[in-house]
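Reopening this one. Same input as before:
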Amino acid sequence: IKSSRVRIRRVKVFSSLEKGVNADGIDINSCNDVLISDCVVSTGDDAIVLKSWFEVPCENIRVTNCVLTSSSTALKIGTESHGDFRSIRFDSCTVLNSNRGLSIVVRDGASVKDVTFSNITLQCSRRHFNWWGNGDPIWIYLTKKSESSKVGSIDGVVFQNITAKGRGTSRIESTEGMQIENIFMKDIQIEMLEENYVDKRADHALYIEQVRNLTIERFKVYWDDAHAEPGWKSALVLSEVHNGQVGRFIGRQGRLGSEDPIIMLNNTQDIVLRECQSEEGGSTLVSVKGAESQGIVLEGCDSEHKAAQLFDVDASVTQAQSIQTIE
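Same output, byte for byte:
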């Protein structure tokens, strides 16, 4: 707590995955200049988590070359977020059998800026409802803990070279009308597996809402066709996203034969979809909804012999004339 110039190396931490409630592995609380490397952590709560109980920033933190298992979240920032988080790097880690993979949760007014998750392999499975998580690889969440809480911000988060097997929907979202800004996702693969609980929760592979300045490049979604869930829908949903680029996204709707679009755009503005492709058996590649949708460009996207059609536009869209296709 409130420490500087900390080095944690080759540490092993184990607690019960079933009974280890509130048994975080390694907590970094309002600290700066911290390196965690070559650790093995298997815990009933968060494995490695950055917090700020105080209005003191947590900054210049690097976590690298760790193997993590968690009944909550493997690599996390928050939820205690009174002080800011800056210059955070999670790199070259392996996540096994975790309820949630990578997460940022701000609800106490902190500013989160300049965070990178890179070169990470994830395997996620759902736990009992006592723990946060749905077997989801990624969750970013900006909210308020109470009416009197300050509204924080999330700006500048990179996900790069991530390979994930998950059972829940990855989500990037805000509840306070505050937009998350500058999200960059490159070289990502997500494989959606059947859920291991009877109360099904997953729908889309990746859902993004209330983001300004979004870049997705080389992103691929797979679905477990042999065990398809009835609630599976789209590979990617963008809702109230402003100023975005989606390049070389490859995927398919969740259930073969369904009419769910591969990519759903809802009240999105100034979005360029470039060289996006449907997998074999895909439905409509892009569906556009919402009266606020405008400035949408499809460039070099492929539906020939794969998708039933390149795109469709809902009757609620009043700016259909601004949707352009470029060969």
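So the earlier flakiness isn't reproducible anymore. For the record, The mean pLDDT is 93.
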